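Lab notebook, bench 4. The sequencing result for the construct came back, and we need a structural model before the next group meeting so we can plan mutations. Quick request posted to the team channel:

Model the 3D structure of this chain.
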Amino acid sequence: MHADAGHAQAAPETTGAAPAPAAAPPAATGPFTLPPLPYPPDRNAPSIDAETMSLHHDKHHAAYVNNLNQAVAGHPEVAAKPLHEILANLNSVPEPIRTAVRNNAGGHANHSMFWTIMGGKGGEPTGELKQAIARDFGSFATMQEQFNAAGGKVFGSGWVFVTVTPDGKLAMVSRPNQDTPLMEGGRVLFGNDVWEHAYYLTYRNRRPDYLKAWWSVVDWGKVGERYAEAKTGKLTT
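Done. Here's the predicted structure in token form:
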């Protein structure tokens, strides 16, 4: 990285949203790099098809990384900082590049998290994480319902997240475009991308169906590792 309920039809991602990069521009050298997918692109099929995974990672995420490197070129005071510090201090980013940094650093951070918590077989979490979910949401099933509803309500493009504090408390938030709780100094336990490019090839406008199917590819072992990292202060994305 650094070296209301769900509706039958989601609003189009072009309305009130930052433009989605259709393809990666020529690679820009810089401090930020595209992390490889930690599994083959067909690992999450049929819930997420291989073509969508490849396009999402190799084109969309790559474009965020390239655009971020281009934005910070000539600004070593920004380029030298870790991604989470840049996002938590956007007001200190020079105004001419602030919007580009916000959109592309947010996209880089969100997607870097996203790949790592998928590739699993769904099911339910165990141990401390399961207990925390029951404590803060009532039950795992309730959390899923709330998460799907929040994702369905996002107007246009954005994300739905479960956040985690250093003492292990969980909360649910949604953000537009590529915004992230890191911008308020928070930490993301896991989240789901509800930009149309994340699901359109298989689901077309049926975002609620995508949200429901997505749970079958969550890797709760990886999410549990993030929970442990958050409680020891090591989680940075």
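The two ends are 10 Å apart (CA to CA).
Will bring this to the meeting.
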